[in-house]
Amino acid sequence: MQLNNNVTEFILLGLTQDPFRKKIVFVTFLLFYLGTLLGNLLIITTIKTSRALGSPMYFFLFHLSLSDTCFSTSIAPRTIVDALLKKTTISFSECIIQVFSLQFFGCLEIFILILMAVDRYVAICKPLHYMTIMSRRICSVLVAVAWVGSCVHSLVQIFLALRLPFCGPNEIDHYFCDLEPLLKLACTDTYVTNLLLVSNSGAICTVSFIMLMFSYIIILHSLRNHSAEGRRKALSTCISHIVVVILFFVPCIFIYTRPATTFPMDKMIAVFYTIGTPLLNPLIYTLRNAEVKNAMRKLWSKKLVSDDQFYS
């Protein structure tokens, strides 16, 4: 992996070099990461243990929470530890692994959001055929395709990174490894690689966002034929999905559609979609979803009853 490179490790400059601000970074990332773990693991546990949440929408929500947890874990723990150190280094191999994890779970989240939009479209626009089209077997196949597709996407990104020669300097002006800051350190012309990156990550983000927004416009337009109660319930679900889509895609499109140029605000925008969105997703889905909240209450009630029986 390192045969053509003089660089065996990189120095991560992080979000700041100021000791006081690094403490703020430590506290912020720690609280956000713990909140992400608590919220998403709660959703995962609730969906797995509740019979009331057996519909395809919650099957996809389970995988969304799983991808959120893994996505945040690929970045946040190391950033938390690095905030306590004066000099933060990451080996070439660890950097490549982080690029793979970031791209894999980020792409997986995109595909899962698309599947959730498809599920809502079929449920609202084709209600009589819903159970046939979105059967358990079909949903499992779709999720498997999403996992495989994400892996292929990440392998392409890794292939692009491994083709680049690095001979110094080795300072990455970021708090995690990603292709865009790595391109700036390569000892070769990266114009073609930049184009490939835009056509890969940038195109996936942009095209998926346009598809998702167009699909939700169709769904919202079709609600005019539903009853008032049906419109209210469907509108609540769709709005929560649209909020998640906007919060995740807008920062990603800003970052990955122009990798040849960087702005001072890039790192702060990256903070938003790497630790902010994974925390907001479970809050959005639980606060706006009565079925999930009821299932969580039942799960908590069962735990209290079992604890009382244990101590009695």
From TrEMBL:
Matching CDD domains: 7tmA_OR4A-like (cd15939)
Keyword entries, A-Z: Cell membrane, G-protein coupled receptor, Membrane, Olfaction, Receptor, Sensory transduction, Transducer, Transmembrane, Transmembrane helix
Transmembrane residue ranges: 24-45, 57-76, 96-118, 138-160, 201-223, 235-256, 268-287
GO CC term, one of those recorded: plasma membrane
Compartment(s): Cell membrane
Molecular-function annotations in GO: G protein-coupled receptor activity; olfactory receptor activity
InterPro entries: GPCR_Rhodpsn, GPCR_Rhodpsn_7TM, Olfact_rcpt, Olfactory_Receptors
Residues making up the signal peptide according to the UniProt record: none
Topological type in the membrane: Multi-pass membrane protein
Domain G-protein coupled receptors family 1 profile: 39-285
Protein family (similarity comment): Belongs to the G-protein coupled receptor 1 family.
Protein's UniProt name: Olfactory receptor
Organism: Sciurus carolinensis
